Amino acid sequence: MSENMYFVDISWTPMANQTGYFTIGCQAVNIRGISSDFLYETVMANDLDECINRPCLNGRCVDLYRMFYCACYAGWTGTLCETDINECESDPCHNGATCHDEVNGFYCACVAGFTGVFCQTEMNECSSNPCFNGGTCNDMVNMFSCACTNETTGVLCQTRIPSMHNECSVSSDCLNGGTCMYSGNNYVCACAPGFTGELCETEIDECSSRPCLNCGVCQGGMDTFTCDCPLGYTGEVCETDIDECAINPCFNGGTCQENIGGFTCTCGQGWVGSTCQAPDLCVDNPCQNGGTCTNVGGSFTCNCEQPWGGTLCDELQVYPSCDYQQFNDHVVLSLEEDLDGVDRFLFPGGKSEEECALECSKDLRCVAYTFIRYLTPDEPPVDYEEAQQKCRNFYQQTVERAANESYAKIPGESDVETGMENDALHVTRSNKRHQLVTKVGVLILRRHLLEDTANACFGTSSRSRRLNGFFDSSGEVEAVSGVKNKCNTNKVVVGSPRCPSENQVPIQCGCINRATPGGCIPRLHRGLFGGPLVCDARAVGSGMNTDNVLSILTCAEECKHSRVHYQEFKQNLGDLEDTTFKPSVRCPAELVAPVILGCTIFTTGVIDPISVPRPLLDHVTGTCTPDRNITKNNGAHVEIVLACMSNVSPWSEWSKCDRNNRRTRQRLLLRRSCAYTEVNNMEEDIGVCKLAVPAPSNIVFIIDGSYRAGHSHFRLQLLFVMGIMQAFAVGRNQTRFGVIQVSGKSGIGLRLNDSYDIGTIIDMVDGIPYVGGPRATFEALQLLSNEMFIQENSTARNGPNLAVFLSCGASINSTAAMQAADDVHEAGILYARGIGIGPEFEYATNSDAHIAVAEITSVVRTNVTFHHIRELSRIDLMEALVADLHRLIDPTYEYGVAVTHWSAWSACSVSCGGGVQTRQRQCINPQICKEKRLVNTRQCGLRCCNATQHEVHFDCMLSSRLTLLCNQDDYPKILRVRHVDSCSMTNACEQDDEIRTSLQKRCDGKGHCSAIYPCGLTNQEERSIVVSYECCYNPMSGTDIQNG
């Protein structure tokens, strides 16, 4: 390393609001002031990890700046790797084969007669030499034919034509050790034991007669068979039932009862176990709250009822609150047997889909769940009824083995098929790998059915591998899966009306009907006598809770800086005239930037699960609305409870205006968790300074509230309008505002005389509801000219009537809109600006683009601009519109100047004796105009109200000092020089302004004064002067007046 080389560590900590790429420059300067070149380094600050929530379903997430990219696994495509690539699109299978798509592959189901991966090879049916007695085989598609010699016949040339000589001379005529014998005019083969057929070519199946009894499995041999007997049976054909009670296997006085394949011990009091070998720890039932006690290996477990958990069922079950992405009729379970590192779990507590999701939420390893529900059991055929009864034990063993291995090994085909056949349960699937998973799912389901449970729930620790297609089991079961997205700090309890902790409050009430999915309705209410909110649920149509219905209560933590606020709504539909009702409830108005935590809708009179209303949440406006109309039904009653929280502090006061006529304000974004009190982030708002324009004006904004604009775009327009309004001085005789919404039913959202307080106006505009519907622009223009500015409605004042038109596209009747625009112009209404926003103005390929542009240009005629919807938040666009409006109000106005123009001079304060006049101008930006004068004054009315006139003759040749004096004995007098004449020796006199000006400067405003050589230093002997002056009795007339 060079001696002149040094290394230093440089660090930079970005602020919370500094995100993105930044370039840092460094320069070294030595003690002599010599500088090095700048070294620049670009770094990225405060970028979030967009991959933290694992958005890629079947791929690897690559985190980028403010975005992410999914690198898909083989066989998958799409933004989130959600689409399975269809390898069958290229039609790879030949010869009429059917292509079956798989993940990252395919397989061809060949028609008969073809083989190969692509079914490209025709099968050679002659390869096995099927023709006998020298016959010639001819290969054909999916078949063959034998050309026989003259001495044979038959499909395979297996029959000899009778002749006069002995046909048994050829020893190879009879197969498998058969002996040729001549009989009559033909020969026959006497077959060896175990074979049959004309040539002894067929082996006899000794198991075809099903000789094995009691579900024994027959294994055929050469002229013999053996029976593999199930547990509990023995003998050559499994005919003997083993008496397992012969050895008295039951302990402690237990009674043995022999059954098929085993025995059962009936234990005496105080003893349990398969052989009554263990003491009964459940005799006193230590499980609380209805829990069921079960002895397990010298100990016991409690099977708790919801909502209880814990060792003794004495603790409320509390689950994390997690969001899931659902996939109906899919299974989240990898089919690859060698997938390392993936765990699978069986959740016996998941008796409904909701409970299955909660079990997955509680297990940190689980990232996806699948819930399987039993639908319609197959009735076994009559022929197998007896076999099913006898083979129940064998079938149950197969089921138990499949379940206990936790999917690590799929049961062998022979075991599964035997059990399936004897139980008359057949599961079919074209893809064999899917078939195996389906069978295991049904086996697990059947295992639970033996325990009187009609469902199964399992989870997996891998969610990014794949969704294994549709779950198919011949209509017997249905499946739904969920992939865990994110969990929050809220808690969920099942079956409890209240939250488990004192610092928790309810925010959402839901319900479960284990028997009928969706067959319940939740209610969050305060009871008949008020009090805290409680959660309960009812079965749909019954009006009362049943054993299959459970409530699901979500609770949020509440603390000093994190309070939950409720908006509660109740209405009896019998009190309304309309037959349908669809209320909308909004977060409390006092909340700043409210966040919806939950919404619960309850109504009576619902008789069908499909009619249960679900909440629709609008997080932009903070509202909750039912997803369907509430109809009258036996005096139906509806209740809505909306839980909200404000995560934002109120806005600070606006800052002083900067040199660009802009001002700022801030508010703090707080953490939602009570465990943190520090600030998480800060939000800053930039606004246009309030520019005072004394002239009165009326400004109306026409905004787009149609369905093409959408709710979010409508909200952006409101924010834009509110930002413009705050830049004006609002008052009865200053600027007044109005708002008209274009929609399917255009209407006035704010009239010009609704309020003259800017705070109230902002609140009213902020609360204008989104209407939707088609874009009826002509109706809004008619409202503008026929109602908004009509004098008799007391909505108009002196001053210009101005309009700003925001449009997201063409109206439903552009011709009518253009005609209405002509009427508006004829009414003298001026347009400050027309702003086109949205896709219809952004994309030239849009068929409506030219219509939309022509329409807005016809309405506004001048000053039309087009922007992307997000540009409405740009401060420079607001500033440009503010400047346009101010110039229309006051044509002399210059946007960006520090002060307004001077006003006219005021009248003089007095008519004589000396007064003042003033003129004023207003400061627009204090940062610039603080050094400038805002009030200007000047003297006026200088004529004396009372004065004595005096005249002095001064001979320039006789004296060098001129003295002017006012007698001040009585009261102060002020001298003022009025006139000076200069006379020559010939007594010719003329006015001398030069001497007068000189004397005025020296003497005016004083009580007396002296001047040396007033006539000058030359020609004094030839001159004299006459000075006329007055003594004013107005002492203040001579006071200096300073300009402010």
Automatic annotation (TrEMBL):
<dbReference type="GO" id="GO:0051049">
    <property type="term" value="P:regulation of transport"/>
</dbReference>
<dbReference type="InterPro" id="IPR002035">
    <property type="entry name" value="VWF_A"/>
</dbReference>
<dbReference type="GO" id="GO:0048592">
    <property type="term" value="P:eye morphogenesis"/>
</dbReference>
<feature type="domain" description="EGF-like">
    <location>
        <begin position="203"/>
        <end position="239"/>
    </location>
</feature>
<keyword id="KW-0106">Calcium</keyword>
<keyword id="KW-0677">Repeat</keyword>
<feature type="disulfide bond">
    <location>
        <begin position="72"/>
        <end position="81"/>
    </location>
</feature>
<dbReference type="GO" id="GO:0048598">
    <property type="term" value="P:embryonic morphogenesis"/>
</dbReference>
<feature type="disulfide bond">
    <location>
        <begin position="229"/>
        <end position="238"/>
    </location>
</feature>
<dbReference type="GO" id="GO:0060255">
    <property type="term" value="P:regulation of macromolecule metabolic process"/>
</dbReference>
<dbReference type="InterPro" id="IPR000742">
    <property type="entry name" value="EGF"/>
</dbReference>
<keyword id="KW-0812">Transmembrane</keyword>
<dbReference type="GO" id="GO:0042063">
    <property type="term" value="P:gliogenesis"/>
</dbReference>
<dbReference type="GO" id="GO:0000902">
    <property type="term" value="P:cell morphogenesis"/>
</dbReference>
<feature type="disulfide bond">
    <location>
        <begin position="267"/>
        <end position="276"/>
    </location>
</feature>
<dbReference type="GO" id="GO:0005509">
    <property type="term" value="F:calcium ion binding"/>
</dbReference>
<feature type="domain" description="EGF-like">
    <location>
        <begin position="164"/>
        <end position="201"/>
    </location>
</feature>
<dbReference type="InterPro" id="IPR018097">
    <property type="entry name" value="EGF_Ca-bd_CS"/>
</dbReference>
<keyword id="KW-0325">Glycoprotein</keyword>
<dbReference type="GO" id="GO:0009967">
    <property type="term" value="P:positive regulation of signal transduction"/>
</dbReference>
<feature type="disulfide bond">
    <location>
        <begin position="191"/>
        <end position="200"/>
    </location>
</feature>
<keyword id="KW-0597">Phosphoprotein</keyword>
<feature type="disulfide bond">
    <location>
        <begin position="51"/>
        <end position="61"/>
    </location>
</feature>
<dbReference type="GO" id="GO:0051093">
    <property type="term" value="P:negative regulation of developmental process"/>
</dbReference>
<dbReference type="GO" id="GO:0008593">
    <property type="term" value="P:regulation of Notch signaling pathway"/>
</dbReference>
<feature type="domain" description="EGF-like">
    <location>
        <begin position="278"/>
        <end position="314"/>
    </location>
</feature>
<dbReference type="InterPro" id="IPR036383">
    <property type="entry name" value="TSP1_rpt_sf"/>
</dbReference>
<dbReference type="GO" id="GO:0009792">
    <property type="term" value="P:embryo development ending in birth or egg hatching"/>
</dbReference>
<dbReference type="GO" id="GO:0048638">
    <property type="term" value="P:regulation of developmental growth"/>
</dbReference>
<dbReference type="InterPro" id="IPR051022">
    <property type="entry name" value="Notch_Cell-Fate_Det"/>
</dbReference>
<dbReference type="Pfam" id="PF00092">
    <property type="entry name" value="VWA"/>
</dbReference>
<keyword id="KW-0217">Developmental protein</keyword>
<keyword id="KW-0472">Membrane</keyword>
<dbReference type="GO" id="GO:0051241">
    <property type="term" value="P:negative regulation of multicellular organismal process"/>
</dbReference>
<dbReference type="GO" id="GO:0048871">
    <property type="term" value="P:multicellular organismal-level homeostasis"/>
</dbReference>
<feature type="domain" description="EGF-like">
    <location>
        <begin position="47"/>
        <end position="82"/>
    </location>
</feature>
<feature type="domain" description="EGF-like">
    <location>
        <begin position="84"/>
        <end position="120"/>
    </location>
</feature>
<dbReference type="GO" id="GO:0048666">
    <property type="term" value="P:neuron development"/>
</dbReference>
<dbReference type="Pfam" id="PF00090">
    <property type="entry name" value="TSP_1"/>
</dbReference>
<dbReference type="GO" id="GO:0002064">
    <property type="term" value="P:epithelial cell development"/>
</dbReference>
<dbReference type="GO" id="GO:0061326">
    <property type="term" value="P:renal tubule development"/>
</dbReference>
<dbReference type="GO" id="GO:0003002">
    <property type="term" value="P:regionalization"/>
</dbReference>
